[in-house]
Every structure is written in structure tokens, then in C-alpha cells.
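Before relying on records like the one below, remember that each one covers exactly one chain. Contacts with other chains, cofactors or solvent are not represented anywhere in the record.
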Amino acid sequence: MCVMYVFRHKNFSESIRLNNNKVLSVVSFLCGCAMFYDFVHQCLNCYTYLSKNTYPALNRILPMSLLGVFSLLCSIYYFFGCLAFSSSKYNFNELKFFHFVPVLWAVCGICLGFTEYDDGLYAEETILKYTVLFLPFCFSSFLPAPLIPAENG
């Protein structure tokens, strides 16, 4: 419904007020805290995996470490978003590279999920996990497009 609301308006600068928006600022701060928690969690997962396995698999440790890096970058992105939404000094639209960091975080999370062994018979938790990772991927892919103003027209 939110996507339909955003795309229904012709002028996006009037439909979405980014500066001095306290709700977006609080949500951005909470997302930044959650992503920093995910960074700490992935660091602990890497340490646990490396300490328990004698021969760690590269296809398991690489997405795990990239997930930690992208979760740290996501937390920085959301904290910058919190600053941009709380005052008019910062412009959220100038974070062009950082708009794709949540997408890369979700892709690495999906790739990490592919390295886990599952029985396939009782896979409700795995399906739910992939759904939860796929939804931010779609949200992050489609949300920044209307927020970034078109150049030269």
C-alpha cells in the first residue's frame, strides 16, 4: 500500500517530506541500532564458526563476513538517515551509494542462507527467514528510486 501511495503522486518532493520528520528519524535510528546489533551478531557468528571448525568453508565464511560488513554500513546509512530526517542541514538524497547497501545486505543474507543445511521436510523456519530477507530487498530496491530526484528533467 505504501508503494502505491508513493507512486500515485506525480511530484515526490511534495508527497514525501524528508526534512524535520520525527517519525522517519526515530524509525531510522531504530533501524541503525538493529543493524549494529546484526553487525555484532555476525562478528560473533564468524568467531564461533571459525573456532568450532578445523577446516572452514570459504562459501560459508565469505557471505558471513560480507553480511557483517554490510550490516555495519547499513547502520551508518540509517544513522545518517536519522540525522538527515531530524534536521534540514543534511540531504538524504546525496547518499547515492548507501541507498544500495541494504540491498547488498539482504543479498548476502540470502547467500548465507543457501549455505545452511536443512532437511527440507520441516522447512517452515527457513521459508520464513527467506521471506523476511526478501522483503527488505524489495523495499530497499524500490524505495530510494522515488526519493532521488531525476537529473535534467
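Helices lie at 2-8, 12-15, 22-52, 58-86, 101-114, 124-142, 144-147.
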